Amino acid sequence: MALRTNKSIRGELETLGIGFDFESVKNLISDMQYLVDNGIYDKFFNVFKNWEEPVNVSTDMQKELQSISPLLTQAVSNNLIPEKSNIFSSYVDYYSFYHLYRFIEWVYSMNLERKLQEEDVKAIFSSDIIEKIIIGQENFEQMALSTLEDSFFQDIKEVIWTDKHTEKFFDKLHDLLISKSFKEIGTREIAFKRELKRIVKFLAVCCTLSKGRTYITTIEVISAYNVLFKIITTDIRHLVNTKEYKGLLICPVCNGYYYLQENEIPDDFIECSCGGKLVYSVSLENVKHYVGTIKEMVMDEKGLIAGAITSLMFALVFDSVILMALLVGIITILMAKNYTDGFKYGFLTGNISGALFFMAVFIFGIILSGVKFNQLSSISGSIIFIFIMVVGVFAIYCGRIWTFMCQRSKNNAAD
Question: Which of 183, 217, 237, 266 is a Cys-bridge partner for 280, taking CB atoms 3.0 to 4.6 Å apart?
Answer without folding.
Answer: 266
